[in-house]
Amino acid sequence: MTTPTSTPDKTAEARSTDRLAASLFAEVLIADQLSRNLILRALPKGMQISHFSVLNLLAHVNEERTPAQLAAAFHVTRGAMTNTLARLDWAGHVHIRPDWDDARRKFVSISTAGRAARDQAIAAFMPLIAGVVRDIGAERVRGALPVLRELRLRLEADPPKP
């Protein structure tokens, strides 16, 4: 008579990796929440982080993007991006124009007012985040960036596998 084989308990190394993963993601999530709160408090009245993020991307690429491209860049639904763009358009921070070749599509670009609002936002929160980096130490922060960048790239590429 054979006995069913049972899966062995996790090894000490696997348990240690699980604890490390839990600690890493707890720190990342808490840092995300705290940094968002810090930046949000410094943003100009009425501006949300999502608004600033779209303006910042458009300022960096300095090219038009479709709402679908923006939604994909921020990993949000098209509906969420449409809402953000409507608010930015209402504030005069973006220009939204039809695609002359395909009436179903639109193109979005940053306006002069949008660039000014983005610059004002950066001027408001940059001293705060630079102070955090100064307090931690530039070399320590520089040393953490490769790990954080790899974490972001792995999470962006594909859903993690167990």
Secondary structure elements and their pairing?
Blueprint: H1 12-42, H2 49-61, H3 67-74, H4 78-90, E1 94-98, E2 106-110, H5 112-136, H6 138-157
Antiparallel strand pairs: 1-2
Helix pairs in contact: 1-5, 2-5, 3-4
SSE string: HHHHEEHH
- Using the coordinates shown, work out and report the CATH topology of one domain: Arc Repressor Mutant, subunit A
Biggest sheet character: 2 strands, antiparallel
- Which strand order does the major sheet show? 1-2
CATH class of one domain: Mainly Alpha
Shape: globular
Q: Which oligomeric form is depicted?
A: single chain
Count of distinct strands:
2
| Name of the CATH superfamily of one domain | Winged helix-like DNA-binding domain superfamily/Winged helix DNA-binding domain
3D structure, described in words:
- The structure is a single chain.
- With 162 residues, the protein is mainly alpha-helical.
- The protein has a domain at 48-157: Arc Repressor Mutant, subunit A (Orthogonal Bundle).
- It contains six helices and two strands; from the N terminus they run H-H-H-H-E-E-H-H.
- A hairpin with a 7-residue loop joins strand 1 (94-98) and strand 2 (106-110).
- It is globular, with a radius of gyration of 22 Å.
